[in-house]
Request: fold
Amino acid sequence: MSDDAHKSRLALWVLLALVAVVVAIALIAVLTRGQSATYDPDSAEGVVQRYVQAVNDGDTAAAMDLLAPEITEDCDRLPPIADENRVVLVSTTEHDETARVRVVITTVSGSGPISDEYQSDEVFDLVRDGDTWLIDGAPWQFTICYPNGTP
Reply:
């Protein structure tokens, strides 16, 4: 076999190896895309994550369990919002008895090939009840009840 043929085969194998590496990286990126972080369920972030999941799943009872008693005592339930909401944690500020969890909420309205999408910076306010964090205020996209007599 000539030296040129050997070089050509070597170049072909190197090119095939590079293509295989690129395909593997692309496959890993596609398979891991969209996986969200899981927070300690007892942390302020974890309570917000569980609350958002419950609201998105339409599990009002589970969501209500994560609200401060002052909110649930005199509450008229709201119908669920049909829009899809994605929530990304920005930051958390904790004090002894309160916490603020800042998030970016992406709301997608409509279906089909064209839909509306917008983002807003929002805050979940939490209060400590013993060792437990409870939601004391939620962004409008995740408000599931309002006090009786309030439209």
